[in-house]
TrEMBL record:
<feature type="domain" description="Tubulin--tyrosine ligase-like protein 12 SET-like">
    <location>
        <begin position="68"/>
        <end position="215"/>
    </location>
</feature>
<dbReference type="InterPro" id="IPR057954">
    <property type="entry name" value="SET_TTL12"/>
</dbReference>
<dbReference type="InterPro" id="IPR004344">
    <property type="entry name" value="TTL/TTLL_fam"/>
</dbReference>
<dbReference type="InterPro" id="IPR027749">
    <property type="entry name" value="TTLL12"/>
</dbReference>
<dbReference type="Pfam" id="PF03133">
    <property type="entry name" value="TTL"/>
</dbReference>
<protein>
    <recommendedName>
        <fullName>Tubulin--tyrosine ligase-like protein 12 SET-like domain-containing protein</fullName>
    </recommendedName>
</protein>
<dbReference type="Pfam" id="PF25556">
    <property type="entry name" value="SET_TTL"/>
</dbReference>
<dbReference type="GO" id="GO:0005737">
    <property type="term" value="C:cytoplasm"/>
</dbReference>
Amino acid sequence: LKMQNSDNNAQADEDYLVFLSLHLAALKAARIPPLYWKSLYSKLKNEVFDAGEVFGIMQVEEEEESEKEVNSAKEICYKVIVTRESGLQATDPTSVFLVDHAWTYRVESARQQLVEIPGLLIRMASLMGMPFHGEVPDPDIVDQVLDHMWKYNQTYQLSQGSAEEQVPVWYVMDEFGSRVQHSSHPTCCMAPLFFAPQQVAYSILWPLQDLENGVKFGDKRLDDLLEDVGKRNLRVYTEIKQVLDHLKHPRFQFTDDRNEADIIWAFSHIRDYRKLSEERPHVLLNQFPCEMVLTTKDCLASVARRARGGRGAPWLPLTFNLQTELPQFIKNYQYREK
């Protein structure tokens, strides 16, 4: 019996090493702490979805006031909270959770999937809070889902394969994952991971700090973080001449030291948002994560091509990315030359 257990443990260790050899780069890219890797592998292998044992979804009604209507309609939103009495400990190796993807697709096939895949439209409409009755796909509901899905969409991109295979894949997380709200000062982190043996992508959730029972994700208030900053002048770091020339208010003082700045107004792209949010959460920036999809020309062209069901935005001229579409560019050039 001891020998059998020893053999089983050796096999398990070997399987885990194989997992690391296939996924190490992805684990590091997602910044999932090594503390959780072994437990994560076990949950992936056995398809363990145990987030429901720790978290719950709380419905919140928020009344929005407008100038036109004093008694405006109440908007229903959701918050994910820790419901386990013992809370959640970041140092526990098992404090890592799988989140399933309810819908994975490429933009050009989104409408077709909503119409043809049984139950998908109903599930997406319910997840997005739209009233829908009946089994026959309603064109109006399809249009509403396609309009609202960008509030729930996430994306990942395969690092290997042909240029076509590396086109970003869009996905909507399940009812639990879609209720996790983004926060500028997060208490938990979530990242996609493609599990090679199953050829399936999941989102991985893990805590950034210990959480007590009843704590909502992102409960830290920006007011608390800025309290000490609000009592003094703000130091501004910038390399932009217009800011240097025109920011004259006495409340702001320029500094050449980026590390001591309260405000960073940068010209070059800021890339390590996570480091800033963890080490200097009070710092204000003139950029936000992933804005490069609009502010760099190759990404903007790629996004614009997806408009109107893949036919492209009407304002986008014929465009080629010479890193991935050089043969198509040459073909078009030769065709026009003739």
